[in-house]
Every structure is written in C-alpha cells, then in structure tokens.
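Bit of a strange request maybe. I'm writing a small parser for structure token strings and I need a real example to test against, not something I typed by hand. Could someone generate the tokens for this chain?
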Amino acid sequence: MSGVKDKIRFRREGLFAKYVSALVGLVVFVLAVNGAMETWISYRGIKVALTDAMSERADATARRIEQSIADLERQISWVTRASSTTTEQRRADYTQLLGQVPQVSQLTQVNGSGRETLRLNRQTVTIAGNADYTRDISFTDTLTRGTSYGAATFRDGHPFMAIGLAHSGFNAGVTIAEIDLGFLAGLLGEAEVGKSALAYVVDPRGRVLAASAKGPEVGKDLSKLPQVAAVLSPGGKQLATGKNAVGDAVLTTSRAVPTLGWSVFFEQPTAQALAPIRDQLIRIALLIALGLVVAIIAGTVLARRMLVPITALRAGAHRLGDGDFGHRIDVKTADELEELAQQFNSMAAQLQETYTDLEAKVKERTRDLEAAHSTVREQADKLREQTEQLKDWNRHLEERVETQLGEIERIRRLERFLAPQVAQLIASSDGHDSLLDSHRREVTVVFCDLRGFTAFTESTEPEEAMNVLREYHAALGELIFRYEGTLDRYAGDGVMILFNAPIQFADHTARAVKMAVGMRDAIGALTERWRNRGHNLGFGIGIALGYATLGQIGFEQRLEYAAIGSVTNLASRLCAEAKAGQIVVSRRVYGMVEKLVEGRPIDDLQLKGFNHPVLAAEILRWKGEAEQAAE
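Reply from user aminoacidic:
Good idea to test on real output. This should exercise your parser:
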C-alpha cells in the first residue's frame, strides 16, 4: 500500500510529464536550430551569389557603354579635321560618317559665330540654315571643353543624345552629332542572371534609356523607385534591395557610367530569387513535425519503463536518509538503475561500518582541504597573471598583423598606377595617405600615341591590333618604371605619364624628356618590325610643364590617381601636332632642359582648345651629362 502511494505521489509531481516534455523539446529545438541555420546559410548564399553575379554584369555593361560612347566620339572626331575647309568637303565627310556609323542619325556644323552652316541626316540636307546656336549648351560647352555630351531626349518614345566636338583650328566651330541610343539595348542582352533577372539604363533624371527584354518601358520615369532615387541622390548610395515598377520587392545592384552620368541597374524579384528558401522551410517544418511525433512516442515509452525503479530508488534513499542502514533496495532492470541500486546497498553497508570514526575523518579531511585550498589559490593567482600577459601579447600581435596587412594592401593599390619602388616608398612613409589627397602642384606631363593607328585598326584583324598594342605598351611600361613616372591613364594607343606626382623630383622635367627620347628610340625599333609585317605606324610625343590639381578619383572598388588642368590638354595637343618620330615640347619645357638636349624652336602652333598661338620646340636628341660637362 505504501508503494502504491509513493507511485501516485511520483506521478502527481510531474516527472513523467517533465521527462517527455524535455525529450520532445530537445528534439524540436535541435531540428529547429539546424533548420534555421541551414535556411540562413542558404539565404545568404543565394543572395550573395545573385548579387555578385548581377554586380559583375552591371560593371561589365557600364564599361561597354562607356567604351561604345568613346568609340563614337573617336569616329565623329574624324569629321572635325582642319583639312576640310569647304562646305562641300564637310558634307562629303558627314555623308561618309553617316554611312559608316549607323548610331549617328544627324550631323550639324556650327561655325565659330554660333550659326548653323550645314545639317545632314539620312533623308535631308540643309545648307546655310543660319540657325542661332550661341545660347545652345551643346555649342557653348563644346567650345569650352572641346567635347560635350548633351542630355538624353525622347522622340516618339525613342532616346537620343547629342555629342559635340570642336573643330581643329582657331574659332573653327563645332560639329554636333545626334546619336540614336537604341544600340544600348543590344549591350544589355537578356541579363541571364537567374530566371527572372532584368537590366535597364537610366539617365540622371531617372528616365529609362534602354532595357532588356523583361525590363521597363523605354522613356519611363523610375526616379521614384528607392534604388534609383538613392543612386541619383548626392553621394550616389547603392541599395541591395528595392522595388520594381509595380511595387514588388527586388534584389538590385547598379553601376555608374561616370562620363555620361548614367546608371546601369540589374534586378531580380526577391520572391522568385528566394523560392528555394520556401521549399526548404516546408521540408524543415515536415521534419520537425515528424520528429515531434517520434519524440512523444519514445518519451512516453521510456518514462513508463523508468517510473517503477525510480520510485523504488527514491523510497530506499529516504530510508537510508533516516538512518535505516539495514534496508536494501530491490531493483531488477539489468541497466544503470539496477547498478545504482546496488551502489546504494553497498553504500549502506559501508556507512554501517564506518559511522563510528566518520567524525574524525571529517576533521582530518577538513584540514587537508584547507591546505589544498591555499596551494590552489597561489596557482590561480599565477595563472591569472600569465593570462593577462598572454592577452597583452596577443593584442600587440594582432595590432602588428593588422598594420602589416594594411601596408600590403596599400602597396597593392598603389602599384596599379605607380612604379613598385615608388608605391613601397609611399606606403612605408609617415603620412603616406596624404600624398594621394587632392592638392595642386607643378607637374611635367608626357602624352604619346601612334600615328595611323585608327586606320590600322580599321584595316587589320583585331587579334593583330591587340598584339601590336601589347608590344607597344610593354616597351613604354619598362621606360615609365625606369624613370619613376606615374601612369595616369591609357586608352588604346594613347598614354599619359605624370612626373613630380605623387613623389616629387627636383629634375622631373629632365626625367620626362630623357624618358621620351628613350621611348622614341624603343618604339622606332618596333615600327621597323611592324613595317616588315605590313603596318605603317608612327610614334609622336608631346610634353608640357605647368600646374595641375592631383589626387584620387573613382569609387572604392576602382580608384585612380589623376591630374586635372590645362597642362594635360596642352601635352595632348602637342602630341597631336607631333609627326612620326617627333618630340614636341612647350617652350617652357625646352627652357628647363636646353643645356641637356639638342633641339630647335618650331613655328608657333594653333592648338585646339587654346585661344592664342602656343610657343613650342622639338627635341632632337639627349646630349647627356658627359657632353654637358664638355661644353
């Protein structure tokens, strides 16, 4: 009767329910945590993979658009040559350009006084229209900058833009080309990044200039969309998520086309991109439900099997606690519970035997514990001191590693546009970051390119053109690094090198001239080899000295060190005037190196973009320090 009461009390206190609940809760918890982790990892993986893929496509598309506009500008610049002096000659040039470049829909010549002299498209020709362009931004900006890009316009839902190029010579007027932007859709393709991805290009006002097959309608205003509004706002912040034209959430990425102020967007609906996550959540829910059923059944069976022996153990423990050391617990389960009952019985026998001297042993053990406690405290203090020392050492080590990693990253970034030894010098010097901050300084600018390269690329295979460029850049690059110049940029055959920035040299003008002589000799040998392969190419160099604003431009993923100022334009124009094998320098450069070179003044030059004749000279050869001393 007593055993039955104990069993009833045992059930009432809830061990059975607690055991089942604990087992069920543990199973559900493990499955839920595992499912949540798998879902989160899958979500992050899918989102990162899609975002990275779309970012790569957006970046590549932005570069292709910018390159296409640059190619159009280069093709249009052909009709601005100074050799075409009559309206008929200009009309013939315009007709040829319209036939060769389908993207150009109309060409307009405006004289230096801002009056229209010729307008030509594929249907009509207007001569001496005399329209007034003096207040037209496409005319005024072109005169100021040499080249201008007009804002996009739409006719019948079709996008157009204007490119203005100044003619060679003083007050020679400009050519304004109307460009049909329909070719942009071909650059976007079908945006195959996921099943439902789309791509589109917007202008600075948020209007769609081109879109992929699944994209928005051309001409539609998307400036209200959060991702578009963020990119168009000051600072140009990019969002990873946004809304499409119908208000659905999308994953998005964008890249700017800096020259034109356009932005390329790639997007995919979030619901479709994350569809695998929904399927995974359903599988996890089914698995948790199955685990819940199995856990309830298993917990109930195990709890019932454990209930009787645990009750016996509990009753025996109470009797031993009351001092009944003669009582023995009878449990036959052939498992740990039976072993525990035997241990209780053995303990009771031992307690019976040792009870008389227990108090003495307790006192002895107390003394031992006090002594051991003192020893442990000393070891704990020593261990705490060593731990603090280890923390300090780890902190210093982490700081040193972080510093070294930062140094390596800065060198890697700087070596993209500086000689390796200059990059290492900047990265290892105190305050090196300030060397790349925006500042004004006198610099020597070298600009060089190949004569006849445009005709060469139009008449030869692309692979051969690339081989020639590789040989050409390799020869120039070795000399740029030898004389510690800074490669500002190169585009095709055109290369611009800075001296005295960011590292200053007292002899920066002499370095530039000596490097130019070396380039002329090196490329001269190459042109002979090219001539043997049937290519008639020459090499010209222009050098100018003056002040420019210097510093980093671009964005975090792509930074460039650049110079802005009229001195760069002067070097480019002098290069354009140089004949094959000729080095043309400003008269100021010639004055700086006159004792070191053999040269001669040349006639004053009328350069594009300069209102007054420019004094210039030609460098024939570098005399060197030995000949200078002999003089």
